[in-house]
Model the fold of this input.
Amino acid sequence: MSTRSVRLSSLALCIFASALITGFFYAYFCSVMPGLAAADPETAIKAMQGINAVVRNGTFAFSFFGTLAFGAIAIFVLIGAGGWPLAFALAGTAIYGIGAFMVTLLLSVPLNEGLATVTPTPENAGQIWRDYYEPWVMWNALRTLMSALALAAFTASFVALFVQPYTAIRANARMSPQAA
Done:
């Protein structure tokens, strides 16, 4: 496999994993959380506790951890390529790493862990749900946006790398003397 193929393949994995995690966060943004908010708070809490109990699985891990891991691999294999492909891969990895991965670990997971410890009753469920829902939805909106931006950066890196030989040919043709 050529170096170019390895670079394009690593970026394809970045695109695939980041598209999956963007869709995952987006599904919560546009359907899961509004659906839970429409339910009574006690039911919403129990449903979210159930979701959180099963969400950490291999399918989720591929997209959540894979986006960051594939981004690091892409950066490594793109070091020799330089230019826009490397810059976009660095941007995508940083955007995802800080704006989605770290937000999840530092802000969303603690909210989920706190919710896992409560026993909702009709008396306390409303306050528990408000205390959880509002910050969780805000941080998830940020994760969704940052994941989408990372996806765009990885896609731009792939396109920049893909067209690199063709733009080099065109640039060389412009620089070489024309035969009359």
